[in-house]
Amino acid sequence: MNTAFQPEVLKWARERYGLSTSDLARKVGVKEEKVVAWEQSGDITLSQAERVAEATYVPFGYLFLPTPPVENLPVQDFRTVGSTRVKRASPNLLDTINDALRRQDWYRDYLIANSEEPLPFVGSLKVSQDIVGAASEIRIVIKWDAGLRSRISATEDALNQQIDAVEEAGILVMQSGIVGQNTTRKLDVGEFRGFALSDEYAPLIFLNGRDSKAARMFTLAHEIVHIWLGVSGISNLSQTLPASNSAQTEKFCNEVAAELLVPQTELETQWTQVQSQPDAVKRLSRHFKVSTLVILRRLKDKGHLSSEDFNRMYSDELTVINQKSKSGGGGDFYNLLRARLGKRFASALVESTQEGATQFRDAFSLMGVRSTKTFDAFAQMVNGATP
Questions:
Q1: What domain count does the chain have?
Q2: Which domain range does residue 155 map to?
Q3: Tens of pLDDT, residues 167-195
Q4: 25, 31 in Cβ contact below 8 A?
């Protein structure tokens, strides 16, 4: 039995997920001409409409609407492409933010139920403050020691250590390269690198796991400043700085993040030692455990590179980075799950569930798993045992 849907809603569902008519036809198992006909007449069976909803990750009920819905991001959008604001968020980004908000809501309730106090540093900075002073205030709570990072050989280890320090301060840090557990729904670094969800009890930072480890280090620092400002937002940094028309908030976050990761005084010392070397930028990148792009940006800002040299070197480095394989691939399931949830959140959820304060079905939903067996194995890992 065919049911009349609005053609523009069917077209919206397809375009929302960035599919061509041939793409959708292949995913739902029909000829392309059939998809074109649906979008002209709205004449489609319920079973076909269900397959369209599944293929486009649209809630089935949306297809019954008289006009396409307007989907707004639940947080402030600082993203730009060039000098233009991004007009639409992908379903992958929307679902990722909504998942993070659900986990944040649960964790806030968990803390309040356990008589925890609000975190005093959330919202304690102002964009009018001195950059070096702002970075110093953050270092009082979270250790950002460039010298310590330089003694860690692997960038991944340095990133993990820094994340642990951030979580120790009471901030949730989650990172993933896919939506939930769906490996076919990869997050696009070009769309966003991370976001911050400010909250006085349960501030949360999400890092796009498909980004490089060194780039994630900068994003982590950037989103930390968002938390200190008390401003939620999503960013896609270009040349490690926002576009010239971006809000003052983004400029401040980037400047403080750069000072946290590459302090001016230490940069001057290291630059004196390596500037005559042909691989000086890479040496600095390895020392500070940040991307070469961040180093180039910092050198330009401190007057060590002309705009011409910066643009040339930045373009060359970007080409090399883009030729490398994307991160966010395979790995142990339980380790990946803990990274997606964050250690602090995972520990709280396991503890609450095992004590009976949280029902298993709610824990499964928050974790994105379906079986008690998977939960029990994950709980063993969280509690220090091998699953």
A1: 3
A2: 80-261
A3: 999 999 999 999 988 999 999 988 899 99
A4: yes
